[in-house]
Amino acid sequence: MYHRLSEHVDNKYTVSYSSFIDQMKLLKSTNFIIEGFDGLEKRLVSNNWPKKYAVLTFDDGYKSNLQAAEILSFFNADATFFITKNYVNISHYMRYLCSGGVVFASKLSQEK
What we know:
Layout: E1 4-6, E2 14-16, H1 17-29, E3 33-35, H2 37-46, E4 53-55, E5 57-58, H3 65-74, E6 80-81, H4 91-110
Parallel strand pairs: 1-2, 3-4, 5-6
Helix pairs in contact: 3-4
């Protein structure tokens, strides 16, 4: 479970971009399949499990989640992103959501 990526790690909920990339490199180099809840649901139904499997989530809908989606796409990996409902009424948060970020992340997912 992740929350936020940043160059400046200032709390226990933040991971640096370079650390996140290193973690993805490690998982992929050791043959992990990395998916979000969509992939998990399909595997629960089909009972088709790889030997090495990770489910990733990003909580709270930070803007850095868009960069996380790009990084995951590069590694042919996926995750589930949760947007906190309490932020929806905050005007600057809605501007970032409506500026194409959510559409961009959705397109990354569809390109796989």
